[in-house]
Amino acid sequence: MPTYRPGPVSLILAGLVALFLLLPLLAVIPVSLTPTRMLAMPSGELSLRHYRAMIEDPRWINSILLSIRIGVVSSAFSTVLALCFSLGVWMFQPRFTAALVGFVLLPMVVPPVVSAITLYFLLTSISGVSSFFGYDTWLGVAMAHAVMTVPFATVLILVSLSQLDRRIDLAARGLGATVWERATRIIMPNIKFGIITAALLSFVLSWEEIGVTLFITSVNAITLPRLMWMGLRDNIDPAIAALSVILIIITVLVLVVRSVVVRLRGAP
Q1: Is 104 inside any structural domain?
Q2: Angle (nearest 5°) at CA 28 between 26 and 201
Q3: How many domains does the chain divide into?
Q4: Is residue 37 domain-resident?
Q5: Within-domain flag for 91
Q6: Is the pLDDT higher at 105 or at 49?
Q7: What's the CA gap between 192 and 189, in Å, rounded?
Q8: Looking at residue 233, which CATH number applies to its domain?
Q9: Where exactly are the transmembrane stretches of this chain (predicted)?
Q10: Percent of residues, the chain, with pLDDT higher than 90
């Protein structure tokens, strides 16, 4: 089977586009090495003071740990909700499937500020009943993030289910399998990569969520994006550039490891 190899013009154009997209990210690196107390390009002298300040400042460490905790909880909650809904729609095929799917996808199409205001009033109302789960609590933020990420997880799981042969489920039902056995032993093992992808995407969306977080937090639940926003709004802290460089390095390492693993699996 003949394979297509791009010509030199295509490679040059692709390289120019990649360079154009990467230049803003590369510009953060020298900014993070500036010796000044403001975001600026270094003028000859380089310094790691902002990396040291970020490590020594407990606010950054606490916000990172809090964002991880919120991301894990919201990812697990949204993935479970999306999985239950998708399995129910796929297995039972209710009459109003399209309407149900559209209702679940509403947070994806509604403007974020509308969702943020709605969640703000909801969590403030809950705060009057319980201080553990409500406004400006990490659990309240996790549930709010789950509401925003459920549509994305649902789409991924529904796509995985659409590629599954329905005759497998029919055969299991014909052999006397219960609904629970069909779901856990037949369907879920065949869509496990879709479930994992939905969980990872939900975590990433929760990790970077800032719009809703600004409405439902104040001084107690300070996530990493909110702390970065506060740093840019109040004093333009160069430690934000240092943190951005660290996140870029982590992302590149993850992509490199994934490419190596995929290549090793494809090797004979």
Answers
A1: yes
A2: 80
A3: 1
A4: no
A5: yes
A6: 105
A7: 5
A8: 1.10.3720.10
A9: 64-92, 99-123, 138-159, 193-219, 239-261
A10: 24
pTM of the model: 0.84
Out of 5-9, 128-132, 148-152, the most confident range is 148-152
User: Residue 153: CB partners within 8 Å, gap ≥ 6?
Assistant: 78, 79, 81, 82, 83, 198, 199, 201, 202
Does residue 220 belong to any structural domain of this protein?
A: yes
Domain that holds residue 231: 58-237
